[in-house]
Amino acid sequence: MRRVFFGLEIPAKTKARLLQVRTEVAGAKWQSVEQLHLTSLFLGNIDANSLSAVRAAVRNISLAAFKLDILGLDCFGQPHAPKHLWARIVPDTSVINLHEAIKNRVESLGIETERRAYRPHLTLARFKRHPGSVERLLDEHRATFFGRFQVDEFVLFESRQNTAGSVYNVLERYPLHALKLLEQANAESN
C-alpha cells in the first residue's frame, strides 16, 4: 500500500515568500519548504493494482493550463483557536475543475474519495492541542500577495512519514494543455 495524493507544486519564489509568515504561535507545526504544495485530491493508502489504474485513468485529462495567485491568509477553526493556517488560492475555479476531473476519473474505477467539499488552500501550519491565536497573522496578511504562477501540470505524490514529518515524492507528472491557454488569451484580446 502506498499513501498518495494529487496536487500542484508551488514555485520556489512563492514558497520563500510564504515561509516568511512563520512566527512563534503556540501549538503550530509549520510546513517545511519541501512540504508546501496545493492538494488537488487525497487518495490515502492504495494498493499497487489500483495505483496503476489511477495513473492510467488521469493521463488523458484534457484541461487548459491556468494561472493562480496566492493571496492572503485564512484559517480553519476560529482565529483564536485554529486547526490549520493556510494561504488563499485565487481564482479557485480552475483548481476546482481540475479536482473534479481527477475525482471523476478515480471514482469511475470504483475507488472512493473524500466526501467533504473541496476547498483549495495551501496549508502553512497545523495546530495540535492548545493552539495559539493567529488573529494578528490574519490581520497582517489578509491581503498579502505571495505570488502568481502558471500551472502547466498536476502531480501524483507519494507521502511517507519520517521523524521530521511527511516527505512527498513525485510519482508522475501530468501535463495540462498550454495551447488552450494561448487560444483563450488570443480570443480574449480579439
Automatic annotation (TrEMBL):
- First-level EC class: hydrolase
Q: Where, by residue number, is the motif HXTX 1?
A: 37-40
The regions listed as transmembrane in this protein's record are none
Q: What is this protein called?
A: RNA 2',3'-cyclic phosphodiesterase
> Motif HXTX 2: which residue numbers?
121-124
**What is the residue range of the signal peptide feature?**
none
Q: Which organism is it from?
A: Denitrificimonas halotolerans
In the UniProt record, does the keyword Hydrolase occur? yes
- Enzyme Commission number(s): 3.1.4.58
Q: Which NCBIfam families match?
A: 2_5_ligase
Classify the source by domain of life.
Bacteria
Q: What does this protein do?
A: Hydrolyzes RNA 2',3'-cyclic phosphodiester to an RNA 2'-phosphomonoester.
Going by the UniProt record, its keywords in alphabetical order are: Hydrolase
Family (UniProt): Belongs to the 2H phosphoesterase superfamily. ThpR family.
